[in-house]
Specification:
Elements (H helix, E strand, L loop, with lengths): L2 H11 L2 H4 L2 H18 L6 H5 L1 H18 L6 E6 L6 E6 L4 E6 L11 H8 L1 H4 L16 E11 L2 E11 L7 E4 L19 H21 L3
Parallel strand pairs: 3-4
Antiparallel strand pairs: 1-2, 2-3, 4-5, 5-6
Helix pairs in contact: 1-8, 3-5
């Protein structure tokens, strides 16, 4: 499989109709964090202002947890511990992969290289055959995706961004594939998406079958 297969597998796991839920959820979360900071003097001290990103991250986690628990996005989620027991992060369990959410300053760069992300992205090495690696390796875990979001200044104006990405196993290589800015999606989601090539569909199905075999062999639900 190549970059097209990575793109197509991401589309299989998170179709466009569910991606359309993300922009309003993110906008509402950012607005909620800003409103809370304005309403609470304790969140207006310089140390709190310097860490406003944490408030945004919590609001985003809460927003996505609500989307899932309401049934609007029919997937599962759990609060998974970090590799070091310093806290937990929201892990979204898709049918044949997992997704985590990160606030970043640069949408083209992977989030900070912490242990749990290292372990997760290594599962992408055999799942998406890359020229740098031996493509005969078997699936060793669930493919891992990222939803990165944030704000960035462009041409003196601040703009919001959100991207789904398939992180490259090598952190400095950033992404095997990354979507366009989801915040610029059209509001009305088309009922049909362009048909995919048969070879791409076959590649996705083959990967899903290999993941199912790995699950059975390792007793993973």
């Amino acid at each position: 499989m190549d970059i097209v297969a990575a793109e197509q597998f991401l589309l299989d796991q998170i179709p466009v109709r569910y991606r359309a839920l993300f922009p309003p959820a993110l906008k509402n979360a950012y607005a909620a964090a800003a409103a809370l900071a304005m309403a609470e003097p304790i969140l207006q001290v310089p140390s709190a202002e310097d860490n406003h990103g944490r408030l945004v991250s919590w609001a985003v986690d809460f927003a996505f947890q609500r989307i899932i628990e309401s049934g609007r996005w029919p997937v599962d989620c759990r609060w998974h511990p970090f590799a070091k027991p310093t806290g937990r992060y929201l892990q979204i369990k898709l049918s044949h992969s997992v997704l985590s959410i990160s606030q970043v300053a640069d949408p083209a760069v992977q989030p900070r290289d912490v242990k749990f992300r290292q372990n997760a992205r290594l599962n992408n090495q055999p799942s998406f055959a890359l020229k740098d690696f031996d493509d005969t390796r078997a699936v060793v875990g669930l493919p891992s995706f990222l939803l990165v979001h944030g704000k960035q200044v462009r041409d003196v104006q601040e703009y919001e961004f959100a991207h789904l990405g398939v992180p490259h196993p090598q952190h400095t290589r950033h992404y095997i594939y990354r979507t366009p800015n989801l915040m610029e999606m059209i509001h009305e989601v088309p009922s049909e998406v362009p048909p995919v090539e048969d070879t791409d569909t076959d590649a996705v199905m083959t990967l899903k079958e290999e993941i199912e075999k790995w699950r059975r062999d390792n007793g993973v639900e």
